[in-house]
Amino acid sequence: MSETIPSFKIFPGQAFPLGVSEVDNGINFAIFSQHATAVTLCLSLPQRGELDRLAGSMIEFSLDPRVNKTGDIWHICIEDLPRSNVLYGYRMAGPKDWDTGHRFDSSNVLIDPYAKLVEGRRHFGDAKHKLSKFLGTYDFDSLPFDWGDNYNLPNIPEKDLVMYEMNVRAFTADESSCLDPNLRGTYAGLIEKIPHLLELGINAVELLPVFEFDEFEFQRRPNPRDHMINTWGYSTINFFAPMSRYTSGGGGAVSASWEFKEMVKAFHGAGIEVILDVVYNHTNEADDEHPYTTSFRGIDNKVYYMVDLNNKGQLLNFSGCGNTLHCNHPVVMELILDSLKHWVVEYHIDGFRFDLASVLCRGTDGSPLNAPPLIRAIAKDAILSRCKIIAEPWDCGGLYLVGSFPNWDRWAEWNGKYRDDLRRFIKGDPGMKGAFATRVAGSADLYGVNKRKPYHSVNFVLAHDGFTIYDLVSYNFKHNKANGEGGNDGSNDNFSWNCGFEGETDNADIKALRFRQMKNFHLALMISQGTPMMLMGDEYGHTRYGNNNSYGHDTAINNFQWQQLDARKSDHFRFFSEVIKFRRTHQVFRHENFLSKGDVTWHEDNWDNPDSKFLAFTLHDNSGGDIYLAFNAHDYCVKVSIPPPPQRRQWCRVVDTHLASPDDFVCEGVPGIGSTYDVAPYSSILLEAKP
C-alpha cells in the first residue's frame, strides 16, 4: 500500500540525460520504454534502515503521457527531494501479449537501467536477506572523488601487458588472507594484497564481473543448484553500478562506488592497469520458464532482448543463460556505450574483456552480422580510444570467431586456439609441433591481416572457466558433481593429462612430473608473442579438485589459499614470478609486429613427422642477446645440438624445468653450455646469449 504523498512540487521534467540527474528545480528522473502504456515512479525516502526500506511501501508518482513523455522517454522532476539516500524504481504497465514479445507486469518495481548505484542486501551471502529486493539510488551529496595531484593512468602498451585474471571476492575471502574480517572479499581487501601482485610481476588485472549481481539467484526456488552461491558474477542486474557487496563492512552502494575508486587508484599507483570482464550478452533475468524480473524484462522486453516472433515471442538464447541482450538495437547499443564510457570516465577503467562477445555480433533475429554496429562503435568511440578492448570470440549458439572477430584493427581476442594447441603439445599429443610453433610465434595465421598485431592475440592456457594449471596436469576428466547438474556442466574437451594418476597422489615421481609440466606451460605462455594472461592461484598451484565449472562455490574451491602460497613461495611461486619478470625485461618476447625471418630461427627439419614432439628455436636480439628455447614433450630425453651463440657471446642456462628449485630458474644464467644439451623428458630449457 502506498504512503501518503508529502507535498512535493512536481514538474514535467526532461528526457535527457537518462537516469537520475540534478537540475535547477529538483531531481529529474528519465527512463526509456517504447511499449509501456503507463509508468509509475516509486520512491522510498530516508527514514528507516536501508533493508527495511527495500521491503517496505513506497511513495508513487504516476506519469502522465501527455505531460511526462517525450518520444519514448518518460520523465518527471521533483522538487525538494533529498540529494542522496533515496531508493527508487518504476512500475510499468503495457501490452500483455507474450506472443509479440511483451512481458509487462505492473506489480513489479523495476530497477532503472541507467541507475548509477543499486542498493540490495548489504553483506555478501547473507542468507537472512536471501530474497532481498534491489532498487536504484543516487548520490548528489558526496564530494567528487580525489584521485590525487600526482595521479597518472598507467597507459601500458598492449605488447607489454602481463594480465592476471582474478575474482575480487575470491582473492581475499579466505581466512588465510589474514585480513580483518570486514575487509575480506572486498575492493579494500584487494588493495591490501597489491604487494603480492607486484612481487609476482604482473602489470594488469582482469577482474571477473564487478557490476551489481545477485549471488543468491540460484536459491530463489527449489532446484538442483539451490545449494550454490554465484561467486563469478556473470549475471548482471545493472550495467552502471559497482557490486555493492564487494565494499567493506557492509557499507552499501555509495560506499562501494567510493571504495572501487580507491582500489583503481591504488592499482594505478602501483603501475597496474584494471581491465573489467563485462557481460553485455545477457542479464540475470533468466528465461520465460523461471524469470527473475528485476529491470529490462519488465521495462520493455521486446526492445532489450532478442525474441523469436515466429515462435510465440519466445526469448532467443545464444548466451546459454536463458536470454540474449538485443545488443545491436539502437537503444540497447546506446545503453552499452553509455555504460562503458561511465566506467572509463567515472572509475578510470583501462579496458574491457567482453564475455561471449560473438553475441554482440548478432542482429535482431540472431543471425551473424559482418559489420556489427555495436562492435564498430566501441572500436571508434573517442572516450574508449585509450582502452584495451578484448573479445571472447564465441558464444553458446556456435558462433566461433577466433581470428575472424570483426575488429577495425582495434579489437583483441581471447585466443582459444592458443589454449588448445599449447595444451595438446605440452602433454605430448602427436602432430602438434607445427601448431605449437605458430601459436608461440604470435598466431599470424589468425591475426596477421590488415593492421592487426601479435598483441591482438590474448594468449592463455587457463582461465576462470575450465581447469586450473594444477588440475590440468592432475585430472583427465572433469569432476563437477558438486555443481548439482549431474556432471553435465563444464567442458568435456579439456586436453588435460593427469601424469599417470587421477587426482591427488603421494607418488613422488608423478608429483615431480606435474610440477615440471606446470612450469612448461608457464614458460611457453611467457615466451610467446602476444599478450599473456594467467589465472589467479596458478602462481602456487591452486586446485579445484577437478571441478572445471566452479561458478557457484563460495569456498576454498575458488578462494585463494594464502597458506598454500606461503608453502610454495620458494619453488613454485619463485619460478612463476621470475619467468614473468624475465619476459618483461626482454624485448624479444614482445614484438610490435609479427616475426620476420630475421627475428627467429627454427631449428627444425622434421615438421611433417607427427611423432616428433620436440621443438627448438632461437629468438634473435638486435644487440646480440639471443634467446634459445627447446621444448621436449617426449617421454624420453633428447640430446640436442646447440647452435653457436652470437659473436663474443656465450650461452648461459636460465631455465631448465627438469631441475629442482632454485636451479630451474637462474636469472643471471649458468655458463658453460657446450655444443649439445640433454633435454629431459617433458621439460623445457631457455638459454640466453651473454657477453
UniProtKB/TrEMBL annotation:
It is an enzyme of class 3 (hydrolase). Pfam families: Alpha-amylase, CBM_48, ISOA1-3_C. SUPFAM superfamilies: (Trans)glycosidases, E set domains, Glycosyl hydrolase domain. It comes from the Eukaryota. GO terms for biological process: carbohydrate metabolic process. Its main location: plastid. It is found in: Plastid, Chloroplast. GO terms for cellular component: chloroplast. Its EC number is 3.2.1.68. One of its GO terms (molecular function) is isoamylase activity. The keyword Hydrolase applies. The keyword Hydrolase applies. It catalyses: Hydrolysis of (1->6)-alpha-D-glucosidic branch linkages in glycogen, amylopectin and their beta-limit dextrins. InterPro entries: GH (IPR017853), GH13_cat_dom (IPR006047), GlgX_Isoamylase_N_E_set (IPR044505), Glyco_hydro_13_N (IPR004193), Glyco_hydro_b (IPR013780), Ig-like_fold (IPR013783), Ig_E-set (IPR014756), ISOA1-3-like_C (IPR048650). Keywords: Chloroplast, Hydrolase, Plastid, Transit peptide. Residues 165-583 form the Glycosyl hydrolase family 13 catalytic domain. Belongs to the glycosyl hydrolase 13 family. This is isoamylase. It comes from Herrania umbratica.
